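Fold this complex.
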Amino acid sequence: MTQLFAPPDNAWHGVSTRLRALHRTLLCAAVAGVGVALAVIAVVVLGRPWVVVPVAVAAVVAAVWAWSWSARSQRAWGYAERAEDLYIVHGIMWRRLVAVPYGRMQFVDVRGGPLERAFGIATVKLHTASPSTTAVIPGLERAEAIRLRDRLTELGETHAAGL
Amino acid sequence: MPPDSDGTPPAAPAAVTQDRGRRLHPATPLLRAWVLVVATAASVFQSVVHSDRSYATLGLVVGAGLVVGLVVGFASWFFTRYVIDGSELRVDSGILTKRSRRMPYERLQSVDIVQPFAARMFAMAELKIEMAGTSEHNTKLAFLRLAEAERLRRVLLERSSIGGPRPDLRPDPGGELNVLYRVSPYTLAASVALTTEFLVPTVLLLGALAVGITFHVLVEMLPVIGPIALGAAQVTSRRFIREWGFELRQTDRGLRITRGLLSRTTQSVPLGRVQGVTIAEPMLWRPLGWCRLEVSVAGHARSGDHEREADKSTLLPVAAIRTVGRIVDDVIPGARIDSLAFDPAPRSARWLRPIGWRFLAVATTDDLFVTRQGWLMRRTSVVPHAKAQSVRLRQGPLQRRVGVATVHVDTPPGPVDAVAMHRDAAQARRLALDELDVARRARAVHA
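Structure:
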């Protein structure tokens, strides 16, 4: 299995650990939100304060899982800039590798939502003429995202091929 | 046609419409409102024949609508003009809000002729012009005389970059329309009768009728029988109406399709922009050796309407496999799909697809990446290496258990979906990486 998604030459270029922090923040906030809501319902609506205990246990379990999932998910992302194409790998259970030849890129997007910006990261997305190409690299530090975008755009121009 | 090459600024289209360009055919408002025309005539006829006041009232209401429609239609016709000049087609329109649309010839994607039923009776036609981009950018010139529409299309196609002359295609010197294939009504009827969309409702219908007659509950069964019959009739008649008299012709700029029972559509297939083909073989057609040929063309506007997209991408609705092979050779030179050596999926794939695994196969040649899948509907997708956009490799948890993975070769939107499912993991990786290498070389050759 490791062979199947092995890097093309030496190693995958990983994404920033800030992606891990972003996912942890988001998931823990979600868990906390749902947990508090359930606890409030248990106490105020149902009038059964003891329900708070299993809710709290479940919330802690979920938070621990989210904590470790964020780390594994961040480690699963990788990309490799090769001479002719860009490889991207991601996914823990559903592992995916996509290879996009530079000559096939139509344009490159750099996106950063408010949270991503707060963590100083951005997402780079490559578009080809095919909508099924899912070439996205999240969690790139801003400078790296801009460098990658400029490099890809430049490579795309030199390799450009007609349809 | 007056020469018009000076760059009149688009800010003053109103001034331009006054003295330049041509109008559409004056019968346009009548043809557009033909339903109302017929309804009014019918109501008047009924009221005269039966001397019935209610029909007269109906006729009055419909007639008033007709008059309003005709006035608006006439005004719209009056202000619509088109100009063919040195570098672009310009259409000026609008009654209150003026629009001037300029279409540079090199940006044209396709020029099709559509003849709705009413227009067809009077030898009139609509010219449908697609620009690079989405369906929003479609322009319709309706209505023109058929001869004028054909002349306009020829002019537009000659000036556009669509297709481009292909030296390897030799159309008849006299007529450009060398018929490659024509679907006979019998073949079409048989092919429709042998689809599951038709057979399943028919069997259900016969069963319901049998029950109804045996137990004398036919009337009570009507709520069941009615919808089934309607559904079956709708599916069947749709294919009949759309694909009746289907003709595939060769021209010096690619292939041209003409189809339709009531409204006739003429559509060109620019061969240079073909991204791949799919050969579909429903189970019941296979004993007869029939199949359907669909083609992905770059830049076909995405209308969001699946049926219309399917109509547009159909190159042969039904034909013998040998004919299809010949046409595929025209579309993708040197394809030779009858001599492909398919490599079936490994036995371990049966855990993931108990029946379908036997029908999963992949073949690669110097020029093509070909995948096959499907039991009830076998689909063979053919993608020239030079047209591959990107390559994906994926593996889910179940696939990991049995040691297989799936390879996708992505192409622009269309019916073609080249996916080699459940290949042995090592082979899948090799398939994906090899495809990238071969595609790179193929692109270099084509560039």
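The longest helix of chain B spans residues 53-78.
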